[in-house]
Amino acid sequence: MTVLVTGGAGFIGGNFVLDWLAQAQAQAEPVVNLDALSYSGNLETLEAIKGDRRHHFVQGDIADRELVSRLLMQHTPRAVIHFAAESHVDRSIHGPEAFIQTNVVGTFGLLESVRGYWGDLRGPAREAFRFLHVSTDEVYGSLQAQESAFTEAHRYQPNSPYSASKAASDHLVRAYHHTYGLPVLITHCSNNYGPYHFPEKLIPLMIVNALAGKPLPVYGDGRQIRDWLYVKDHCSALCRVLEAGTPGEVYNIGGWNEKANIDIVHTLCDLLDQMRPRDDGQSYRRQITHVADRPGHDRRYAIDARKLHRDLGWRPAETFESGIRKTVRWYLDHPGWVQRVQSGAYRQWIDSQYGVSA
Ligand code: NAD
Ligand code: DAU
Predict the structure, then answer these.
(1) Which residues contact ligand 1 via a Cβ below 6 A?
(2) Tens digits of per-residue pLDDT, 229-267?
(3) Which of 6, 137, 247, 258 could cross-link 84 (Cys pair, CB 3.0–4.6 Å)?
């Protein structure tokens, strides 16, 4: 058996592939990893599985139907786990087009290829097949301070071009189940953090800027709230949904960790003060700078993950305190990964280290 992962050189997809191959040693279920290697795709993240025969990397676009159909026929996966996306809200504000192309048009192309493949499957292979669509809590919009956390029944109200494009992809995936019977699963996860996170997002940006002596740019008043989940807990939840989720169902994924941005930044500064004190003995908090707010900034996200716990028995392994400490440790221990991402050298590194094939 094989699974096809899209976007498996990105932050969450990369962690998923690493964890999948680490946990499935006995079964050795191979992964076909299709990733276009956009700016956020980094094969250096997959260094630990370089040469592992169970990992078959293919550089390509999810919208390339000929390529995707060929991969499906060649590898006959029992599941597709779809991570590939443009994922950064700020980039979607500056340039929404790429988000429509990959998240909407790309997901549509992928669905068409998968529909053709699944339509030709027979018997147990057809029964067992799953298309797992990895979506986000941002499609639900923004919560007021006193509102209850998002359940799976919450109305869609995406506010950024990014979340609107993810919402559109969710609707397509849902429609392919309703119309064609494609056995889909949709998940909505809250904000992830952990190893290999591209340093344009809040947590890794604050860590690397702090260490570089740069300002820590907090948008607006910094009181916006996000609900944080350690990336490996997201990956374990996806494995559980893939294994036991009911086709056509939607599952929220979260760890009940609502935090204001400014509190996250303070926590990171305090951890760095302990783990890598500044040369001048001052706190990293001195580097905090309030900057202009993000246009249309969602005030609060919070995920109600009770369904996943109740129906599938999943719960996260990390608390925020343990996960954030591991994350800071990881960045302190991997300055080369950060440096090559920041300089752009990870692209040359890919060329020199890997034979990338389509
Ligand atoms: P990321 O930006 O780190 O990774 C995205 C990956 O997709 C990259 O490797 C990139 O090269 C690849 N990709 C982009 N366009 C492609 C295309 N057209 N064809 C093939 N590959 C392409 O993103 P991430 O943070 O790892 O997010 C992964 C998924 O999880 C996304 O769908 C995102 O919406 C969702 N999600 C993210 C979070 C989060 O906190 N980061 C939370 C919930 C859901
Ligand atoms: O909620 C899930 C979503 O979380 C995912 O779907 C997205 O792919 C992922 O990027 C993330 O979106 P956010 O916009 O919440 O994440 P980001 O790290 O960009 O920002 C987190 C919060 O921190 C947000 O309120 C904006 C703020 N922020 C961000 C940056 C980069 C700052 O204050 N300063 C910054 O420099």
Answers:
(1) 6-7, 9-13, 34-38, 40-41, 61-63, 83-85, 87, 102, 106, 134, 136, 166, 189, 191-192, 198
(2) 999 999 999 999 999 999 999 999 999 999 999 999 999
(3) 6
Structure tokens given for 257: 């960790």
* Angle made by CA atoms 264, 191, 90, in degrees to the nearest 5: 90
Q: 121 C-alpha vs ligand 1 centroid, how far in Å?
A: 28
In a domain, 136, yes or no: yes
Substitution candidate for ligand 2 out of 139, 159, 198, 226 with most atoms within 8 A of CB: 226
DSSP per-residue letters across 31-89: EEEEE---TT--GGGGGGGTT-TTEEEEE--TT-HHHHHHHHHHH--SEEEE--S---H
CB 224, CB 298: distance < 8 Å? yes
Q: What is the pLDDT of residues 176-214, one digit of tens each?
A: 999 999 999 999 999 999 999 999 999 999 999 999 999
Q: How far is the CA of 132 from the centre of ligand 2 (A)?
A: 23
| Pairwise pLDDT comparison (66 vs 23), residue with the higher score | 66
> Ligand 2 atom closest to Cα of 219?
33
Report how many domains make up the chain: 1
* Ligand 2 centroid, distance to 298 Cα (angstroms): 10
Pick the catalytic residue from 44, 86, 138, 318.
Answer: 138
Q: What is the pLDDT of residue 23?
A: 80
pLDDT of residue 85: 98
pLDDT in tens, 106-165: 999 999 999 999 999 999 999 999 999 999 999 999 999 999 999 999 999 999 999 999
Question: pLDDT (tens digit, 9 = 90+) per residue, 309-318?
Answer: 999 999 999 9
153 in a structural domain: yes
Range of the domain at 239: 3-194+229-256+296-319+344-354
Determine which residue's CA is closest to atom 2 belonging to ligand 2: 191
Q: What's the rounded Cα separation, in Å, for the pair 76 and 127?
A: 14
| Domain presence at residue 207 | no
| Adjacent-strand bridge partners of 34 | 6, 58
Q: Is 138 a catalytic residue?
A: yes
CATH classification at residue 251: 3.40.50.720
Mean pLDDT, rounded, of the chain? 95
d(CA 34, CA 207): 30
Catalytic pick among 61, 137, 227, 233: 137
Nearest CA to ligand 1 atom 10: 41
